[in-house]
Amino acid sequence: MELNLQTAQSIISVALEWRKKQNMKPLTVAVLDSGGFLVALAREDGVSNLRPEIAQGKARGAVAMGLGSRALFERAQSQPFFIQSMNSLASGSLVPVPGGVLIKHGSTLLGAVGITGDSSDNDEACAIAAIEATGFIADGG
Fold first, then answer.
1. How far apart are CA 105 and CA 111, in angstroms?
2. From CA 71, how far away is CA 37, in angstroms rounded?
3. Residues 52-107: pLDDT tens digits?
4. Which long-range contacts (CB under 8 A, 24 or more apart) does 3-10 make?
5. What does pTM read for this prediction?
6. If DSSP states are collapsed to H, E and C, what string results for 77-100?
């Protein structure tokens, strides 16, 4: 199974509806495939101009390391030089804070969702809710 545009757009739609029900701030949602390539992105009105890069960075770190970005955040606290080195290897494109969640079908990695705009914990909860509501397994780390 592969992550296609229709599925990515569905995940985004569910995430944005979920955030409204939770009274969260406006979000930016990025969906990347298992190779770390952008499949779809949505930026709600009123978010800052760096949010697309942040959302992609959360998802990119998750895909690149095979770990949800919460695990990367925890690792950054215990092994800052390791995460700094990984970010350097990735040309500074990793954002190791909660909100990057792996999308799995069984044990197969399909990609990741990166969300930014509210607190990192809320961003992560929204990504998990959207992935699971779409019928996949969410792994936030």
1. 10
2. 21
3. 999 999 999 999 999 999 999 999 999 999 999 998 998 888 899 999 999 999 99
4. 3/31, 3/33, 3/34, 3/39, 3/103, 3/110, 3/111, 4/39, 5/39, 5/40, 7/134, 8/39, 8/40, 8/111, 9/40, 10/134
5. 0.94
6. HHCHHHHHHHHHHCCCCCCCCCCE
Q: How far is the CA of 27 from the CAs of 2, 114, 117, in angstroms?
A: 25, 10, 5
Closest CA to 19 of 102, 127, 95: 127
- For the purposes of burial, counting CB atoms within 10 Å of the CB of 104, is it exposed (0-12), middle (13-18) or buried (19 or more)? middle
- Which residues are CB-contacts of 46 (< 8 A; sequence separation ≥ 6)? 26
What are the two backbone dihedrals, phi and then psi, of residue 135, each rounded to the nearest 5 degrees? Answer: 95, 15
Q: Which residues lie closer than 8 Å to 84 by C-beta, 6 or more apart? A: 76
Cα separation, 83 vs 33, whole angstroms: 22
